[in-house]
Amino acid sequence: MSILIKGGRVITAADDYTGDIYVEDERISLIGESLDVQADRTIDASGKYVLPGGVDPHTHLDMPFGGTVTIDDVESGQTSAAFGGTTCHVDFIIQPQGSSFADAVEEWRGKADRKQVIDMGYHMAVTDLKEGGTLEELASLPDQGITSYKLFMAYKGALMVDDETLFKTMEVAAETGALVMVHAENGDAIDVLVKEALAAGHTEPKYHALTRPPETEGEATNRAIQLARVAGSPLYVVHVSCAESVEPIQLAREKGWNVWGETCTQYFFVDYTFLERPEFEGAKYVYTPPPRDKANQDVLWNAVRTDTLSAISTDHCAFLWDGQKTIGKDDFSKIPNGGPGLENRLQMIHEFGVRGGRISLNRMVDLLSTNPAKLFGLYPRKGTIAVGSDADIVVFDPEKRVTISAATHHSKSDYNLYEGTEVTGSPEVVLLRGNVLVEGDELVASPGVGQFVARAKFGQELRAAAAVA
Ligand code: URP
Ligand code: ZN
Ligand code: ZN
Prior knowledge:
By secondary structure, this protein is α/β, with parallel strands linked by helices. It folds into two domains: about 5-50 and about 390-395 and about 425-469, Urease, subunit C, domain 1 (Roll), CATH 2.30.40.10; about 55-375, TIM Barrel (Alpha-Beta Barrel), CATH 3.20.20.140. It has eleven helices and 21 strands. The protein has helices spanning about 75-85, 100-110, 135-140, 165-175, 185-200, 205-210, 215-230, 245-255, 295-305, 345-355, 360-375; strands spanning about 1-10, 15-25, 25-30, 40-45, 50, 55-60, 65, 70, 85-95, 120-125, 150, 180-185, 235, 260-265, 310-315, 395-405, 420-430, 435-440, 440-445, 450-455, 465-469. Strands 1, 2, 3, 4, 5, 16, 17, 18 and 19 form a nine-stranded mixed β-sheet that branches. Strands 6-9-10-11-12-13-14-15 form an eight-stranded parallel β-sheet. The chain has a two-stranded antiparallel sheet with strand order 7-8. The radius of gyration is 21 Å and the shape is globular. The site of N-(aminocarbonyl)-beta-alanine (URP) has 8 residues, from loops.
């Protein structure tokens, strides 16, 4: 099957030109001006942007968490991603405490079996190096294409690790060429604040934020940066939400240390006041770190513009409001933490980042595709439009008007964080390795088209043909 994408405005992190793209055998084989080639199918992209497929480095599909399981499994989550122009993501395997890493990998691969709509890789969330996985086993993961380790510095009594586990994992990463990712919040201090709030009878959703002040994020970010320096490992701080965390990352990067950070779409749009919405509606916005004071939104826009923060993910961790979030109706600490968002990252960042004059189109591509691909060992197979790269391509209509709503999204969640937001610009055709996934409002491909991608080690490039179905 060959496809010719004709006359679109091709935008990568570095380039912006009008041209044709020829796709053969799942890869881009020719790029040029007015290509004279025969194709099985021609897509007229005149007046459209032609973008590399989005790479979302932070999602949670089919994950047990907070006394329940996230509502989107691999099929519904990836379908939602495809409609939003994301063609590859990296999900978290959570090592169950007491379990080996091999068992955890097998369990998570099983969840994806025959359900994959887009390509995916995995990070390994390390929860237990005492009764569960060994350091040797952890060290073997990068050779299996799982080239990043994640540690939760919060969620005491659940996923949180102590500094010993964090530091030992960093040492392994320094040896094996893995990237260390941290959820940076001081879980011990937060645990004290949560208990104090509940003892005082404070049960509403807003106490989720009031018991996780920004200083607890700043402290943990600082701690992780300093420990990574000692261990000699690269560090990536996930879901940065506030100035207290941006500042140490900025300092580290100015010093030339191997530190990167991401923020997520929701932190630009949802602020603390959303948690105060009546009738338990605030629970929709209970995710961690929590929505912050609005002043942080400009800090984050500035950070992504200046490369203090290098990626925007969704941290898609979807629950039903009615039936799952309600577990915490009488106790904010029991509300499952997380929100949906896989489908709307490109629309929202295009509307408010690019059309809002905050970042360029090239920088948008960098943040949503190229940088995540580079940091997580997927580039140049993913994250760009170049000869030899996978034909993961979004034909984006910059004039299409859409009102974002749970009534039309493809996640199984019964609410949308951006409900009612009007955007101009949306994906029209989405290709995964040359397979048309989405055309207008239709999912054209069947589950099973997506593949597991064995990622390259940190700092190394990934070339074609490393995928395993
Ligand atoms: O609230 C969130 N972010 N849920 C997902 C787990 C995590 O901390 O990333
Ligand atoms: Zn987290
Ligand atoms: Zn997360």
